[in-house]
């Protein structure tokens, strides 16, 4: 219930005039004074910026190695990772690497990818990879895609909502061209370099480290884990309740 409330708040589905008039993604509310005023969060943004200016401790970096159509990956990204970022964006960063249990082979001058959940997943992985290289709003777009009933067919509409200035033709040019191919190859190399090697997805790293204990804590309550590991002044949002998600796509 708490996660659903967070998502309602994040996307403006609250019945107040403040939120209904807000056209910005929650990750962009504090990007300017105008956005903060429009979304009714000016006071919070001023406090957040003041707090951020006084931060001297390293941010917690949460890495997610995943597949665009893996049910467990989608569940973690939508119900745990994105809400946590909304609440703790001042003390954490996120690194998304869509590849997971895919395989690559080089043929001629390009790489050919085979994905665990078929060609559509390869397309989803590629779209999300290109978006991360082309848009500051990539994470909200990816959240929108992964929370929809059709990850692939929602991509264009989600991009139009959160980054209307980004041409969809440019995104697909990346997806179908050498730029996307090289970016996905880099994802493959980064995934292959994991130590220990990944055994399933979602595979979670905290500050570049993966242990079964960290994985378990992240899956149970990422907000609690990030808050407990951050060494600086903790934001008011720290101290979330525990939720349990243990759905994996095995690396076979």
From TrEMBL:
Its EC number is 1.8.-.-. InterPro entries: Interferon-induced_GILT (IPR004911), SAP_A (IPR003119). It is an enzyme of class 1 (oxidoreductase). GO terms for biological process: immune system process. Residues 15-55 form the Saposin A-type domain. Keywords: Disulfide bond, Glycoprotein, Immunity, Lysosome, Oxidoreductase, Redox-active center, Secreted, Signal. Belongs to the GILT family. Dimer; disulfide-linked. This is Gamma-interferon-inducible lysosomal thiol reductase. It comes from Oreochromis niloticus.
């Amino acid at each position: 219930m708490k996660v659903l409330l967070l998502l309602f708040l994040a996307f403006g589905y609250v019945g107040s005039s403040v939120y209904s008039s807000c056209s910005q993604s929650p990750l962009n509310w504090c990007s300017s004074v105008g956005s903060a005023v429009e979304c009714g969060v000016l006071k919070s943004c001023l406090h957040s910026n003041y707090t951020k200016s006084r931060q001297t401790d390293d941010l917690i970096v949460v890495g997610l190695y995943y597949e665009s159509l893996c049910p467990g990956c989608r569940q973690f990204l939508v119900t745990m990772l994105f809400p946590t970022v909304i609440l703790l964006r001042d003390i954490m960063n996120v690194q998304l690497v869509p590849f997971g249990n895919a395989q690559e082979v080089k043929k001629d001058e390009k790489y050919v990818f085979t994905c665990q959940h078929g060609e559509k997943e390869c397309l989803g992985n590629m779209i999300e990879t290109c978006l991360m290289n082309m848009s500051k709003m990539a994470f909200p777009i990816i959240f929108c895609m992964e929370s929809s009933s059709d990850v692939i067919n929602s991509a264009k509409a989600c991009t139009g909502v959160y980054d209307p200035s980004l041409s969809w033709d440019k995104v697909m040019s990346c997806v179908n061209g050498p730029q996307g191919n090289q970016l996905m190859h880099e994802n493959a190399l980064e995934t292959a370099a994991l130590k220990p090697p990944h055994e399933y997805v979602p595979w979670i790293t905290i500050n570049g480290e993966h242990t079964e204990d960290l994985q378990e804590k992240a899956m149970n309550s990422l907000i609690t884990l990030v808050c407990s590991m951050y060494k600086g002044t903790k934001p008011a949002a720290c101290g979330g309740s525990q939720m349990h998600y243990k759905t994996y796509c095995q690396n076979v």
